[in-house]
Amino acid sequence: MESNDRTPRTRQSRHTRHTRQAPGARPGGLGGPDGPGGPGGRTGVTTAPATPATPTTPNTPATPAALAELVRQTRGPVLVPGDAGYDAERSGFQLAYRHRPDVIVGAECAGDVVAAVRFARAQGLPVAVQATGHGLSAATDGGLLISTRRMSGVRVDAAARTARAEAGVVWGQVVEAAAPYGLAPLNGSSPGVGVISYTLGGGVGVLARTYGFAADQVRSVDLVTADARQLHVTADSDPELFRALLGGGHGLGVVTAMEFGLVPVARLYGGQLVFGGERIDEALAAYLRWTGTVPDELTSSLALIAYPDLPQLPEPLRGRYLAQIRIAYTGSAEEGERLVAPLRAVGPRVSDELREMPYADSHTIHRDPSDPHAYDGDNALLSGLDAAALLRVAALTGPDAPTMCVLQLNHLGGAMAKRGGPEGAAGSVGHRDARFALRLLSPLPGAEAGEDLGAETGDDLGARMGDGLDTDGPGSGEASAEGPDAAALATVRALHAEALAAVAPWRIGRSVNFLFGSHGERPDAAEVARSVHDADEHRRLAGLKAHHDPENVFRFHPSGAAAADRSPAVGTAVHG
After folding, report:
1. Which secondary structure element, helix H or strand E, spans residue 427, and what is its range?
2. Positive or negative CA dihedral for 184, 188, 193, 197?
């Protein structure tokens, strides 16, 4: 959009927003007679195809009249650069990369999403989608951003053991809604992560070894397609599309709601065992041995964190290199105590927080950060691992590393290795046979990362820098820079590549959920895109992408790099 178009466009949008009232309009959410879609767009049903939109063309400024019509058709705000709220709306949890769209639609219902996609098609604008921005990996410069955070309706059917969540719902909402019934979702470790993007990527959560991927529990998906149609997708209505969405669904449309199964879990035995640097070698070796002995009811991970020597940190953490072993066990506390005995035998611990807890407290196991920050991360799915290789990775990423790096090793297997869901409709989650996921994440200074460390409390700093791996809250201010410092990013990427090279003999691919950063701009971007699935699955997903979005309207994700090998873009985190 040209600068000389912004003033009349913004003025018209504000004027129209102030004066119009949509007939029958009600706040977004569930429970109203019109359903979550509201007037002009209900979800939960398959509607007649929309009037064919003009095919996409190279980005062109929208006219004031077109923007005014978009405002008239939507409940939520329509924002352009210069509007109050524009910067807050485009910002998410990931501060290293932020969308800079020509137009933002703050969707309140599925009808708003339909109107936004129809407008984008008519104006030749590509579309990005964001809920929380945790998994933001490819920021739009221009185009249209659909912000779904206002779509926050959650409904639990205790008898059916299901939940229905709209596009902006975060896992903490679902955990809270399900807990009174003794039920739990297959959420990740952070309560602030969005349900939809996490699940479309597969979803490796707190109960993953016991109940599998979050995608395996999905019953139905409400989808707005690239030609602005609303589809209610199930294993019966469209088995190919349904399967593709569950593990490879980013870039196939905008998911406005999802229904998924809940599991009968009301409490856990879990928490952390934390060892100091002097026992890290022993702890790593013991953890690898131990993972070969535990039942599927126990899900765990290991994190290595070199805390900086800063006065804001609590004394037990300041300047220390620590190994944190995180435990979630669905069996009894007594059996849990027996199972963790080999880990406690490693020796004295900095802290031992293992306890019985209500499932609603499961987020305390990992203590993921709640404050937005800037970061970049890569990962490897592994068929196995030996202690020598893990120690090599620890040496590369530990206190002597050229930049801070948090290492996490997730124990996979169990129910994750079994294909299929509740109705036997296998999703497209890649590399289910992986035994471990090795994840690397580094803060990125110069992109609102680390600039305010002096003002943080010890707890805040420990959360941000210590537990900075999100498994799976918008920022509010204007970033000091758009994008990370190039030299800092190059240092981080080089460190991650060297560390992952140490596990090359076992490497079978990557996890969609743990790709953080602009990987679509890497020289090896096409390889990154292909690594998420095996070759046959990648080709199948590319074919479905070509069918459902032939003009690549939904292109802002790292696997958009697949275009480099002339495959349509398929792939990873857009929503976040």
Report:
1. none
2. negative
- Residue 18 identity (one-letter amino acid): H
Is residue 342 within 8 Å of residue 259, measured between CB atoms? Answer: no
Residue 517 zone, left/alpha/beta (φ > 0; ψ -120 to 50; rest): left
Check whether 69 has a pLDDT greater than 50: yes
Is residue 552 over pLDDT 60? yes
In this structure, the dihedral spanned by the alpha carbons of residues 86, 91, 97 and 101, taken in order and rounded to 10 degrees, is -30
DSSP 316-336: TTTT-EEEEEEEEE-S-HHHH
CA distance 356 to 353: 10
Do residues 474 and 88 touch, judged by C-beta distance below 8 A? yes
The pLDDT value recorded for residue 374 is: 87
Phi-psi region of 38 (alpha: psi -120 to 50; beta: other; left: phi over 0): left
The rounded distance, in Å, linking the Cα atoms of 525 and 529 is 6
Pairing label, strands 78-79, 103-106 = antiparallel
Rounded mean pLDDT of 115-135?
91
Q: Which of 565, 510, 499, 563 has the alpha carbon at shortest distance from 532?
A: 510
Q: Rounded to an integer, what distance in angstroms lies between the CA atom of residue 46 and that of residue 319?
A: 57
**CA separation for the pair 510, 300 (Å, rounded):** 19
pLDDT value at 573 more than 50: no
Which DSSP letter does residue 48 get? P
Q: Which residue has the tokens 């690594």?
A: 531
Crossing angle (nearest 10°) for helices 535-548 and 239-248: 110
| pLDDT value for 133 | 82
DSSP per residue, 156-214 = EETTTTEEEEETT-BHHHHHHHHGGGT-B----S-TTSBHHHHHHT----TTHHHH--G
Supply φ then ψ for residue 27, to 5 degrees.
-60, 150
Residue range 440-479, pLDDT digits in tens: 999 987 655 333 332 333 333 344 444 434 334 332 223 3
257-284 tens-digit pLDDT:
999 999 999 999 999 999 998 999 999 9
What are the b/e assignments for 417-455, b being 16+ CB within 10 Å? eeeebeeebbbbbbbbebbbbbbbbbbbbbbbbbeebee
* Whole-number pLDDT of residue 16: 34
pLDDT digits (tens, 9 = 90+) for 160-205: 999 999 999 999 999 999 999 999 999 999 999 999 999 999 999 9
477 Cβ neighbours under 8 A, 6+ residues apart: 87, 91
Tokens linked to 516:
């953080």
**pLDDT for res 386:** 96
Q: With contact defined as beta carbons under 8 Å apart, do 485 and 446 qualify?
A: yes
| 433 close to 405: Cβ distance less than 8 angstroms | no
